[in-house]
Predict the 3D structure of the following.
Amino acid sequence: MKRVFFFFYYLTFYQWEQINKEYLTEDRNFNWKGGIVLITAALVLIFQEYMGGSNFIRGFKPVVDFFNSSGYGDLLISLYWVAAGIFFYFVPAFIVIKFILKEDIKDYGFRFNKDKKVVMLYFLMFFIVVISAWLVSSYPGFLKIYPYYKGTGNSIFELVIWESSRSIRFISLEFFFRGFFIFALVRYLGAYAVFVMTVPYAMIHFGKPMPETCGAIITGIALGTLSLRTKSIFGGVVIHASIAFCMDMFALYHKGVLIKLFF
């Protein structure tokens, strides 16, 4: 029991204490930089909610008609969601870092960490989450949501285009939440920056199955902590994209589509 407690302490409180020692260097009185980061984050979430969804682009009939004329109307509408996410989650944060904070994007987790221990830790996390996703993948609530693009099982072409483009979107998503958000605030809030980030991160999962939305709290804390400790968002990108792919495949399997798609 003591070993379990020590292991839990090492993965959580010890890591947060180390984050405070390494990053908490700024005066925690009001600072305009921290305010700009939070306002930018709020605006990004607003624009993504109101302009980044497929419902927004469906409001432009000429665009929808053009998409439909290609024979891949639903796919192109879903790819708009991908493109909007890539833009909104990355571009405003990059502009603030580069031109307002005048700092290097690499200092916001946009770098690789090839440490073998870090890779193994991400692999363990991936294994745990994928097993959990498999256990709930046969439930009606899960199958109602996934695959996220309903035409994923139409053809190999649509599956490849959808899954690969969405994987690119995860780079922007992770950069926004586990890069820009926490690396900008950790100098003022210390490890609390991880928990502040986790609130809006969980909220963007509203509308998905409740277990997944609750799980986003754990995922947000874990990936945020790891991002600060490894100084890299890309482990989180691989985890996020891989899990999303597996969830779509699990859903297609339970719907009986996966085997037909390949055989």
